[in-house]
Amino acid sequence: MLKALPAGLVAAPGGALVGRHATASPAPFPQPVVAASRPVLGWGPPMVDQTLDVRFTDVSVPGLGSVTTRTYNGTIPGPTLRVRAGHTLRLTHINGLPPNPPHTGESHEPHHANSFNLHTHGMHVSPSGNADNVLREFAPRTADEAAAGAAEPTYVTTVDVPADHPAGTYWYHPHLHGSTAEQIVGGMAGVIVVEGDVDDVPQIRAAADVVVCISELKIKDGRVPAFTSGRWVAGIPSTFTVNGAVNPTLTLRPGEVQRWRLVAATAFTALRLTITGDRGDLPMHQIAQDGVTFARPVALTEVGLVMGNRADVLVRGGTPGSYTLRAAGLPGPLMTIQVTGEPIEPPMELPVTLPQGRPFLDEREVADPDADREVVFHADSGVFTGAFPNAFRMLGTHATPAADPGGDLTHDKAYGLFDPDYTNHTLRLGTVERWTVRSDETVPAFNHPFHLHTNQILLTHRNGERLDPPVWHDTVGLAGGAPGQSVTFLVRYEDFSGRTVAHCHQLHHEDLGMMQTVEYVPGS
C-alpha cells in the first residue's frame, strides 16, 4: 500500500502527487501504479501477483506527445512492485508483440527485438529456473501461429525474496541479449521497492515516499526506430522523462522532507544530478545507494548515477521558489520543484543514524589474494562487416578465448565477446574475492558501467584511491580518460547457484557483445 502523505501532499487520481497548499496549479506529479504484497489464501508467504502485458502501445507522454512503443501494461514506466523481505514476486508476462523478423547477421548484432525476459536489477535472488534468469527467452507468436489465431504466449517469473534481503530501491527491465537496448529506450522499465527496517525510521516514515524513475527514450517520427546500425545511438537525440512525463512539476512545502527514490532507467547516459534554483540550491541527503542503506545520511550537492544506478535521497524544502532537477550536459531540466505553500514549523527532521543495509566485508576475508579477477572494457573498430563493425570486448583474466589465438586479436571475431556457451567466471559460494575493473577508453564521455548479477559488490577503491567508507553497489561507472577509470571491489558469493552474467550497462555495448557468463557453484 502507499504510505500516508504528510500535510503538504495529497494523492491525485492515478497515484500522482500534488501540493495541498500550492499557489499555482501545475499538473499533478505523476507516480506509477503500485502493486503491493497481499496475503495468500492457504499456505505460503504474502505475494505480489502482477501481470506484465507487453505490446506496442500508443502512449501519451506529457511534454512530448504520442509515442508508439513497447510498454509494460501500456505505461512508462511499468507498475511499481512493493514487496517485503520474505515475500514473493509472481509475475505473469504476456508477449503481445509481433513475430520476430528473421535474423541472418552476426550474433553480436541486435536481434529478436520482440522477445524479452525479466531482470530484477540489483536484487539478491536466485538467477536460475523461473526466477531472475536472464538466459530465458519470452518469445512472441511465430508468423504461422499469429496467422492461425493462436493465443498470445504467457510466461511466469517467480522470485522468492530472502528474509534478510536489504530494504531499498531496485528496478526491473528486459535483459535478452540482442534486444535489451531497443526495449529499454522505448520505456520498458519499472521500479521495485523492498520494504523493511529503514522505512520504520521515524523521520523517514514521516516523509512522502516518491518514485523518481528517469527514463531515456529514443524517439523518431513518434516511435522507437529499429536498432539498425552502430550509429543508431548517436543519430537520434534522447528524450528524458520522469515517471513518463517531460519535466513534470513536484510541490514541496518549506520545511517539508520528502524521500525520493531516484532510478536511472537509462540505457546510454550517465546522470550527474543537482537541484538548482534562483534562490540557491537544495542539497540532497543520500541515505542509500543501489538499494543498500547507509549508516548515516550524506549531504550532497550532486548525486551521480550511471545507467542502472539508484539513490534514495531526502530533500527538504527551503526558501520558497522554483527549482529544477538537472543532469549535467542535458539541455533541459528533468523535473521542476515548486517550494511553496504554508511552511512546516518546526521543519521536519532528518535522521542522524540509519540501519545499515549490509555489513562491510574485510579484505582479510579474500579467499586467495593471488587469484584476483581483472576485467578490462575495450573496443576495436572494423572487426565485422555490415552495419555493426565494432567489437565491444571484456578482456582481462577470464576473457572469452579468441577464435584464432595466434592471429591478430584486434580483429578476432570471438576474443572477449559474449559467448553464452562459455563460462568466463566460476564463482564458489561462501568465498570472498577481489576484482579490479578498468576502462581503456580515452574519451572521458565514454562510460562502461560494470554490473554483476545476483551479488552486491563493495567498492573499496576508485582509481587506486581507497574509499572511506566503502560503498555497496550493484553497478559502478567507469569513464574513459588518460588513463580510463578503474575500480576495485570485494564480493561475497552467497546463497544462490546458477548461471548468469556480468556486463557493461551501456546497453548498446551489452547487446553488441560486452558481456560475460558467470556461474555460481556450491562451495567446496
Order of strands in the sheet with most strands: 13-12-15-20-17-18
Termini gap: 43 Å
Shape: globular
Number of strands: 33
Chain-averaged pLDDT = 93
Biggest sheet details = 6 strands, mixed
Strand content: 35-45%
Fraction of residues in helix: under 10%
Secondary-structure content class: mainly beta
Rg, Cα atoms, Å: 22 Å
- Stretches where pLDDT is under 50 for at least 5 consecutive residues are 1-14, 18-24
Count of alpha and pi helical runs: 5
Question: What can be said about this structure in brief?
Answer:
The protein is mainly beta and 524 residues long. The protein has helices spanning 143-147, 180-184, 202-205, 232-235, 507-511; strands spanning 9-11, 17-19, 34-36, 47-61, 65-72, 80-84, 88-95, 119-121, 154-160, 168-173, 190-195, 208-218, 238-242, 249-252, 257-265, 271-277, 284-289, 292-300, 303-305, 310-316, 321-327, 335-339, 373-380, 391-396, 425-428, 432-439, 450-452, 457-462, 465-473, 475-476, 486-492, 498-504, 515-521.
